[in-house]
Automatic annotation (TrEMBL):
Record-linked Gene3D superfamilies: P-loop containing nucleotide triphosphate hydrolases
Protein name: Phosphate ABC transporter ATP-binding protein
InterPro entries: AAA+_ATPase, ABC_transporter-like_ATP-bd, ABC_transporter-like_CS, P-loop_NTPase, PstB-like
Every ABC transporter domain range: 28-276
Lineage per the UniProt record: Bacteria, Bacillati, Actinomycetota, Actinomycetes, Pseudonocardiales
Keyword set includes DNA-binding: no
Length: 281
C-alpha cells in the first residue's frame, strides 16, 4: 500500500566521485513510441523527455509497460523474437534506431541496472568493474585501470567498503553491495544514461537507502531513468515522473508526466492522484 509522501531531497553521504569523471548526461527523448509482442500492442504512442542532470521515475501498476518502455530505450526490446516497435528515441541529437546505428554503440552510451543484482560472482570486485570495457570495445590502458576502478566504485558509493578487498569475488558481497557493484560496472564505460529497472526491489531498507543516495549523487553526471513500484522512492529520488497506465486490456500509455512535486502534490488527472495515493495498483 502506498502512503503519504516524503518529498525531502536526499542529502549525499559522500561526495560524488573523485573529480576524474567528465560532467555529462544527455537528454533522452522518446517520441510516439508504440510496442508489440506478436500481435499484442502493449505501448501506445509514448512520448517523454528524460532530461540531462535529472532522475526520471516511471511509475504505474504492474503490466502497464514500464519495463518494456525502459528496454526500448537501450534497444533490448528487439532481442525478444516476437517484439516490434514504432516511434523514435533520441539521445541528444542521435536517433538510436537510425539506419546504421549499432546496438553496441547504444549500449555503451545507455547502461542498465536490473532488478536482481547480476555481478559475475567468481570474478573479483575489480574485474567486475572493468568487465564491460571489453564487451563494448572501450580501451583503457593497464595503468589507468586501477584509477578507473577506484573512480567507479567511489561514484557508486562502494569504495570505502571494498577498497581493501578488491581481489575478492564479487559474489561474496551483500545484495546491496552487489547492486552498487553493478552500478560501478555500468559507469566504467562512461554512459550518458543509466536505466534502472526496480533496482531496489530485491534489497532490504538500509541497502535501498544506500542505492537511493548513490542515485542522488550520480544524477549530476548521468541521466537516470528508474522504474519503481515504491512511491516514496519515486518521490525521494526523482525530479520528473511519468505515470503509465494500461486500462482494461488497452496498451499502456502515459496518463501524465511532469515535475515529481506536481505529480505527487497536484496531479492533473484523477487516476494519477488515485495511484500515487495508493487507491489502486
Ligand atoms: N517477453 C514478453 N513476451 C510477451 N509479452 C510480454 C513480454 N514481456 C512483457 N510482456 C507483456 O507486456 C506488457 C507490459 O509488460 P511490462 O513488463 O513492460 O510491464 P511493467 O509495467 O514493467 O510491469 P511490472 O511492473 O509488473 O514489471 C504486459 O502485458 C506483459 O505481459
Amino acid at each position: 500500500m502506498h502512503t503519504a509522501l516524503d518529498l525531502e531531497p536526499l542529502e549525499p553521504l559522500e561526495p560524488s566521485g573523485n573529480g576524474h569523471h567528465p560532467p555529462g548526461g544527455a537528454t533522452l527523448s522518446a517520441r510516439d513510441v508504440s510496442a508489440w509482442f506478436g500481435d499484442r500492442k502493449v505501448l501506445e504512442r509514448v512520448s517523454l523527455d528524460m532530461n540531462a542532470g535529472s532522475v526520471t521515475a516511471l511509475i504505474g501498476p504492474s503490466g502497464c509497460g514500464k519495463s518494456t518502455f525502459l528496454r526500448i530505450l537501450n534497444r533490448m526490446h528487439e532481442l525478444v523474437p516476437s517484439a516490434s516497435l514504432a516511434g523514435e528515441v533520441r539521445l541528444g541529437d542521435d536517433d538510436i534506431y537510425g539506419a546504421g546505428r549499432r546496438i553496441t554503440d547504444t549500449r555503451k552510451r545507455i547502461g542498465m541496472v536490473f532488478q536482481k543484482p547480476n555481478p559475475f560472482p567468481a570474478m573479483s570486485i575489480a574485474e567486475n568493474v572493468t568487465a564491460g570495457l571489453k564487451l563494448t570495445g572501450t580501451k583503457v590502458s593497464r595503468g589507468a585501470r586501477a584509477d578507473l576502478v577506484e573512480e567507479c566504485l567511489t561514484r557508486a558509493g562502494l569504495w570505502a567498503e571494498v577498497r581493501d578487498r578488491l581481489r575478492q569475488p564479487g559474489g561474496a558481497l551483500s545484495g546491496g553491495q552487489q547492486q552498487r557493484l553493478c552500478i560501478a560496472r555500468s559507469l566504467a564505460v562512461r554512459p550518458d544514461v543509466l536505466l534502472m529497472d526496480e533496482p531496489c526491489s530485491a534489497l532490504d531498507p538500509t541497502s535501498t537507502r544506500r542505492i537511493e543516495e548513490t542515485i542522488h549523487d550520480l544524477r549530476q553526471d548521468v541521466t537516470i531513468v528508474i522504474v519503481t513500484h515504491n512511491m516514496q522512492q519515486a518521490a525521494r529520488v526523482s525530479q520528473h515522473c511519468a505515470f503509465f497506465l494500461a486500462e482494461q486490456g488497452t496498451p499502456g500509455h502515459i496518463v501524465e508526466a511532469g515535475p515529481t512535486e506536481r505529480i505527487f502534490g497536484d496531479p492533473a488527472d484523477e487516476r494519477t492522484s488515485d495511484y500515487v495515493n495508493g487507491r489502486f495498483g
